[in-house]
Amino acid sequence: MTESFPRLHARTRRFTLGVPRNFTISPDGGRVTFLRTRSGTDPVTCLWELDVASGAERLVVDPLALGAADEDLPPEERARRERSRESAGGVVAYATDREVRRAVFALSGDLYLTDLASGGARRLPAAGPVIDPRLDPTGARVAYVTGGALHVLEIDTEADAGADSGAGTSLAEPEGDLVTYGLAEFIAAEEMGRMRGYWWSPSGDRLLVARVDESPVTLWHIADPANPDRQPVPQRYPAAGTANAEVTLHVIGLDGARTAVPFEQEYLVTAAWDAHGLAIVTLSRDQRTMRLLSADPDTGETTLLREDTDPAWVDIVAGVPARLSDGRLVWVADADGGHRLVVGDEPVTPPSLQVRAVLDVDGDTVLFQASGEPSEVHLWTYTAGTISAVTTEPGVHSGRRAGGVTLVARQSLDTEGTTVTVGSASINSLAERPGLEPRVSLVRAGSRELSTAILLPSWHVPGSGPLPVLMDPYGGPHAQRVLSARRMFLESQWWAEQGFAVIVADGRGTPGRGPAFEREMLHDFTISLQDQVDALQGAAALHPGDLDLSRVAIRGWSFGGYLAALAVLRRPDVFHAAVAGAPVTDWRLYDTCYTERYLGHPDEGHYERSSLLGDAEKGERPLLLIHGLADDNVVAAHTLRLSSALLAAGRPHTVLPLSGVTHMTPQEVVAENLLLLQLDFLRKSLNITG
């Protein structure tokens, strides 16, 4: 390896380039369509297909061959990619018909159709820059959004016709600048995992469409201080306790006929429209009640099928609702202390197996992800009353299933990168080799037996002398860092090679250990700090003489940045320096759905305890605050307000503003130098020489 790890880590987008993803299996199980860049350093994503019987891969769409070397993305697409944390370019999303014979995608705002058998791609006419194109199940039509309007284009089915007539029909035009049809609003995309705003009927004769009105949402402005000649970017941001966008649903026919589908609750979680009918899932503003409703597409009348309640919150689970071939409901719900798969009305998995997502329903077989041990994620199937383990080797697994064929994507600690298998065939990963091998021990640390990873330098001899410690957590709810996958620890191992004992710990609130463990964070984010202290002490007990507890630093991003700043402000007796990247410092400035789920409405009085602004006068340890000034998720006001409070209290600190950088920091030079600047700061702060 000729490049340094920080440079390679940045160029490869954290070693995600070249990894196959976004799999679609044909109904007969014979073909798999997927996305992958052509190398581990190539940021242009291509569309590929695998023949399962022969194992042969075929390049279907190369964006460069279509003349899309320089992407020109509409603002809505840039926002969608920010919400989905998409760091690559090219064909980053696609949609197929039911038979997986055709696929559509957007490239630099243009609309393209490809025949998967021939591999030929052609540009279709569109009324403007295209967002989220989707074929109807029959493959005869494509819908897309442009300018906030939903359009449908009839595709010429004659192979040699050569052209289409016009740019299609606009089925729904926005009534104002703050109205859109067919797009997910900020909250749905950022916090609920819903990246879409319309759904085709099974026959392709009409669509369920979300109308979003952002006029009630508070108007913020994202300024670019490095370029004062530029206008600030307006941003409708639903901060905690303020109004959300108004979302309504409508069934719209191809002739424009519209039927409202009313629902009472604040949030539209998802929708599903299959041969068994139309269903929607909604969630109350306090997130303690979730409803599954069937809807009559002719009248819009809804019927309550299921209502789930919880005194803390009801979890949103990917992949549900779904149906077996006989129409029985597939759902995930909490019961008897576990996240359980429900078929019909009965839980079919034990409480000890924490179901994470439903991946596919293939006839009468359900493929789902679940954990017995929180650091591992396995694939399971449910068929005819029996659950069976698909994967048993240690690791983190995902997959798809159709036509009786199961695709398995595996990451583990004993293999590099991601391996993808489909029957006897495999899909190659072209990711770069990182040039270092994590020396990671997964343990249970502290009185709560927290899932903890301990990484030491490859050159360190146990007992040869204490190492300065770097805590490297995320620490927030509904996210994990301690997983049995090598890629999770590449950056942590690089830090270890710089002379640190690195500790990564998942505290209360993180998934994989059941509802009770996750809900201990209710109304108090600061318990995450106590868990980091417990994990540190537990790790030190497991490695006597190897950890120097007089030199402990902590770093993190987003919630991890909040946790890092919290650590040096409230526990300077334990933590001696911190790097806080894009930290949430005042939870009133973060969004409704995430913040209110855990802290409730601001009027309930749970925000002050978790805010950092009141702790500024306690600042006595070195603190580096890093923030992208173009961040529209955790806006730069968080860091600036904490900095102002620290200054008012006369407390020294360092601020590193990143001009033009969002929450993802995808820029190569920025990502590389951020690691190096953090290293320099922590070495100086902890008096590390050599």
UniProtKB/TrEMBL annotation:
**BP-aspect Gene Ontology terms:** proteolysis
**Protein name from the UniProt record:** Dipeptidyl-peptidase-4
Which species is this UniProt entry from? Microbispora rosea
Domain (Dipeptidylpeptidase IV N-terminal) ranges: 106-397
GO molecular function annotations of the record: dipeptidyl-peptidase activity; serine-type peptidase activity
The record places domain Peptidase S9 prolyl oligopeptidase catalytic at 490-687
Taxonomically, which superkingdom? Answer: Bacteria
Could you tell me which Gene3D superfamilies the record lists for this protein? alpha/beta hydrolase, Dipeptidylpeptidase IV, N-terminal domain
Q: What is the lineage of its organism?
A: Bacteria, Bacillati, Actinomycetota, Actinomycetes, Streptosporangiales
